[in-house]
Design goal:
The protein is of the alpha+beta class. The chain has 2 domains: 7-328, BirA Bifunctional Protein, domain 2 (2-Layer Sandwich), CATH 3.30.930; 348-439, Ferrodoxin-fold anticodon-binding domain (Alpha-Beta Plaits, 2-Layer Sandwich). It is built from 11 helices and 17 strands. Bound molecules: 3,4-dihydroxyphenylalanine. The site of 3,4-dihydroxyphenylalanine has 11 residues, from strand 12 and strand 13.
């Protein structure tokens, strides 16, 4: 089954159930290579169809433009953007000191080709190999894959840019950091943006035991100055930001397995704080694994869709995947423009309620992300969001009941009720086949 998939048309092929029940000895072709499948295999036709697209390398695409704008903000850095999304769990997790029981490793959260090979869930997966190549300041842009809920700001494929800069850790080399900090501080000036900042080091977000705290402080300051300067350039003139109503950006303390201290940056957009990047001082273990133990530096990872949605006023993350001329023809390479919605077509929601099969052993049955992948495979980008509207366990039989509401809406045309009913019937039938549910 996997072998015969035609990537150009799988999006609309209504037969997703098979992919989850492939016999253990079969193979899946991913970007031209055959891989054995096993009990970890959970990559879906929808995901396979996205792998070759590389939106961040299309010059006029908002993601391509955003990439080049950020790259031009860091002219002296190396710019990498063509690494394969197929990585090992070692690259994605272990090389970055993720604990063995980190939830990101689970098949419910990440896409596996088989137990030894997966799709990167973040661009940090390439940190060790990039430092090991001798790169000391670099940006790396790529498509990343995560199993997730379905709504206007989540899509199982999105794009990140990783940036890093490392310095000689020896005390004399700290002068380079200080000079860079002086240069950046002088250059930073406020526009219609308010940045809420926090101290570089706190007891909850300390420097690493092997680091001189003053050096770590200087490196964390360097990270913040570089990113504040980028944020000012990107958002300083953001549509709608005025002196009276400036764009709000805030730094918050965070935790990542591969940095300390660590931070997140959020932007206030449409009444909500949106997380747009994570960053911190690179963990010594990462640098040791890359064979550059005498370095000290910072890294960040930012989500391109989140930023592009704000800068271009793109209301729904599915639009990035649109091949509709009314979307694509609006954009010119290298220039940010406000997206003009061509139309808003009516939504149509359908509910499905069912009993999950009883499993006395208490084994996991169907994760919300399994349901979302199933719906994506059947409905493609016609699904706008999926919500659980009811969930309970029967007190006597202990069976679990679920009700999901699927909201369908095309971004390009009106959907007929008959068409939506047909899609919903397919969802229900695959749900029965794959998970043995009993429709209520
Ligand atoms: N990889 C992280 C994520 O996807 C983001 C991130 C956090 C990248 C901290 C970094 C970093 O380089 O230092 O959520």
């Amino acid at each position: 089954m996997y072998r015969t998939l035609n990537l150009r048309c799988i999006q609309r092929v209504l037969r997703p159930g098979r992919l989850y029940t492939t016999p253990a000895s079969s193979t899946v072709k991913v970007l031209g290579t055959d891989y054995l499948t096993d009990s970890y295999t959970n990559i879906t036709p929808t995901i396979l169809s996205k792998l070759p697209l590389q939106l961040h390398r299309q010059p006029a695409h908002p993601l391509g433009t955003l990439r080049t704008l950020i790259e031009s903000h860091f002219p002296s850095f190396s710019h990498l953007s063509s690494l394969s999304p197929i990585v090992t769990p070692y690259q994605n997790f272990d090389s970055l000191s993720f604990p063995a029981d980190h939830p990101g490793r689970s098949v419910t959260d990440s896409y596996y080709i088989n137990k030894d090979v997966m799709l990167r869930t973040h661009t940090s997966a390439h940190e060790v190999e990039t430092f090991a190549k001798g790169e000391t300041k670099w940006l790396l842009t790529a498509d990343v894959y995560r199993r997730d809920e379905i709504d206007g700001s989540h899509y199982p494929v999105f794009h990140q840019m990783e940036g890093a800069k490392i310095f000689e850790a020896a005390p004399y080399a700290m002068r380079e950091v200080e000079e860079d900090n002086e240069r950046l501080s002088a250059h930073l000036k406020q526009s219609n943006i308010v940045i809420e900042d926090i101290p570089h080091l706190t007891p909850a977000n300390p420097s690493q035991p092997s680091h001189n705290p003053q050096h770590s402080e200087a490196v964390a300051l360097n990270l913040k100055l570089h990113l504040n300067s980028l944020l000012l350039e990107l958002f300083g003139d953001a549509a709608g930001a005025t002196k009276e109503d400036p764009l709000k950006v805030r730094w918050i303390e965070a935790y990542f397995p591969f940095t300390s201290p660590s931070y997140e940056v959020e932007v206030f957009f449409r009444g909500k704080w949106l997380e747009i990047l994570g960053c911190g001082v690179v963990l010594q273990g990462t640098l040791d694994r890359a064979n550059v133990p005498n370095k000290l530096g910072w890294a960040f990872g930012l989500g391109l869709e989140r930023i592009a949605m704000i800068l271009y006023s793109i209301p729904d993350i599915r639009l990035f995947w649109s091949s509709d001329k009314r979307f694509l023809s609006q954009f010119t390479p290298g220039r940010i423009s406000t997206f003009k919605p061509y139309s808003k077509y009516p939504p149509c929601h359908k509910d499905v309620s069912f009993w999950l099969p009883s499993r006395p052993d208490g084994e996991a049955k169907m994760h919300d992300n399994d349901f979302c992948d199933l719906v994506r495979d059947v409905a493609g980008d016609l699904v706008e969001d999926v919500k659980v509207i009811d969930r309970f366990t029967h007190p006597k039989t202990k069976r679990d009941s679920l009700c999901y509401r699927i909201n369908y809406r095309s971004m390009d045309r009106s959907l007929s009720n008959a068409e939506v009913n047909d899609i919903q019937d397919q969802v229900v039938s695959h749900l029965k086949d794959r998970f043995g549910v009993e429709i209520r």
